[in-house]
Please model this.
Amino acid sequence: MTRKLFATDRFSATPHSTAEEKARFCNDFTRFVLGGFDRKRFTQKFYQRLSLILGHIAHFNAGGFWETWFSTPARQQQFVQHVHEYVAFGDPYHCWSDVERELKTWVMAEARAIGAVLAENERKAAEAAKAESDRRAELIGKTCQPFTVVAKSENIGNFGHRQYVLLADDGGAWKVQRIYLYPWEVGQVVNVPLLNGQPDWCGIQRVECPERLPDCPVESLARFSVQRGKGKTSQAV
Model:
């Protein structure tokens, strides 16, 4: 969706915001929602404004806000319902109440289109859950899984850690941190112990803060398989 729905003349300037800024945010909001609540559209600037209107709070940071309202289709539905139910108040010459009213009206008018977006996200989430269940079923009974180091941070953090991204043959990707005294190299294969079909990162010496990343696209796996063939293998120590 690229066309602009909200014209500047529908909004009032405040002492700290222009009517153009209000209109721009509303158009960004519609693109974000109809675009499937795309994480890439949830910029820091967009988050900062959204957290200040519609009765929201900061939830500590952009990550916390995203987790609260957009991380699952059910939470996205709650967000839409929240906009439906919110009652705007205040003078639009001093706050963003006109933006809140316009967005509520838009959400109600586009209920069918937004419902289709939510249904599609629910379908994708179900497919991802099944894929994850199938992956774990394949790994049950195995003691370890090989992961290739595909990225490594150049800098060492304040606590002496480097950050790594590791990829398995089934597309599973993880981001972890490891103390600099135990370095891995890009292309190195690490045999990660498994616990109930899941990587047991705590079973690897000096690994902290494991974070699951989106699965690697199938078309990219072949490239990493070649890279794995050239890399050395290490035990998870």
Summary: The chain has two domains: 8-119, 140-235.
